[in-house]
Amino acid sequence: MFLVYVIGLFVLYKLIDRLVRIPMIGRYADRYILITGCDTGFGNLLAKRLDQLGCHVFAGCFSEKGEKDLKKVSSERLHAFSLDVSNTESIQKALAFVKSKLPEEKGLWGIVNNAGIVCSIGPPEWIRLEDYKLHCDVNLWGVINTTLEFLPLIKKQKGRVVNIASIAGLTTFADFAPYCISKHGVEVFTDSIRRRLRPFGCKAILIEPGVHKTAIVGEDRLISMARKTFDKANPDVKEEYGEIYANYMSSKDALHGLLSNGSERISDVIDAYEHALLGCFPRARYLIGWDAVYMYMPIQYLPEWLGDWIYELADKSRPLPASVSK
After folding, report:
1. Active-site residue identified among 28, 179, 273, 296
2. Which terminus of the chain has a lower count of CB atoms within 10 Å, N or C?
3. Are 36 and 142 contacting, i.e. CB atoms less than 8 angstroms apart?
């Protein structure tokens, strides 16, 4: 009987939790929102959706093409502009641009730190230090720098900071160490500012997608990236691993487990972004995708030896490094 009560209370809690999340803030025409990384992918789709809802959107694009393409399909409420989040001067120019477009006495309702990169794949020692730094320049320092520069405008409006992390910020994919490092940092930074912004009436929210099939994780792109990562590795490391290992890493077999579990439901991530920005009672974090919820997170809670064994079992076709198999 006690167990029945516990289950009943849990179901009731989940039901209430879902119901309180339904109301949205409304008055979208009064909401001014900055989004980084709007050339393609999540940022591009979010900018278009918020524009359609009637929000005023500042869409930062890394490329001139991305900026022009977005302007073609948007209303006059959307302002696409050049932004490189790894460059402090570019962020400061963006701040001046946003201030020039905001009505007097108006701040920002939201910042969406969406810009991100993946540019190296392979065992950690394949990857040069500059590539570790590059990931952090965009995925971590870019998030921190953009947030700190625009934070006074968020405080002015009692708005929201929404940062995209990843399931890779909660667990570790061994061949994506630089990316995981940067996303773990985003988790820590967002948790920190969430607690310290509360007295100002502001919120900080994490979006944590599993693998979603966007351009950043295109199969051909990742295969080419793995080969380039190996080719740039230290000669001693390349000899240690050998061509057989390198050929495996730059093949579909190496990516099958990761991509086969990925989701094509990109709209799930955009829905989470929308609710984080416009819901009356947003969640502190949105874990998205069945792979994240039902596979990677449960493995993360297992003892390390068991979790490692499961990952190795799922990747049993991976050859041994040449120096080990001799």
Report:
1. 179
2. N
3. yes
Q: What SS3 state is found at 174?
A: helix
Q: Rounded to an integer, what distance in angstroms lies between the CA atom of residue 155 and that of residue 254?
A: 46
Residue of 141, 93, 80, 88 lying closest to 113 (CA atoms): 141
- Give the phi and the psi of residue 111 in degrees, each rounded to 5: -115, 130
Start-to-end CA span in the chain (Å): 61
**Cα separation of 326 and 241, whole Å?**
11
Tokens at residue 20, please?
């309180």
d(Cα 298, Cα 295) in Å, to the nearest integer? 6
- Mapped onto helix, strand or coil, the DSSP state of residue 201 is coil
104 dihedral zone (left: phi>0; alpha: psi -120 to 50; beta): beta
Element (H, E) at 205: strand 203-209
What does the DSSP 8-state code read for residue 30? Answer: G
What's the rounded mean pLDDT across residues 3-23?
Answer: 86
- Work out the average pLDDT over 152-166: 97
The number of residues in the chain equals: 326
Nearest to 149, CA basis, from 89, 81, 92: 92
Q: What is the pLDDT of residue 244?
A: 95
Q: What is the pLDDT of residues 40-71, one digit of tens each?
A: 999 999 999 999 999 999 999 999 999 999 99
CA dihedral 247, 252, 254, 259 (to 10 degrees): 160
Q: Which DSSP letter does residue 36 get?
A: S
User: What pLDDT shows up at residue 326?
Assistant: 59
Closest by Cα among 47, 115, 112 to 87 = 115
Tokens of residue 192, six digits: 């920190």
Rg of the Cα atoms in the chain: 21
DSSP assignment letter at 196: H
Q: Using CA atoms, how far apart are residues 224 and 229, in angstroms rounded to an integer?
A: 9
Q: What is the pLDDT of residue 215?
A: 81
pLDDT at 92 over 80: yes
> Is 179 known to be catalytic?
yes
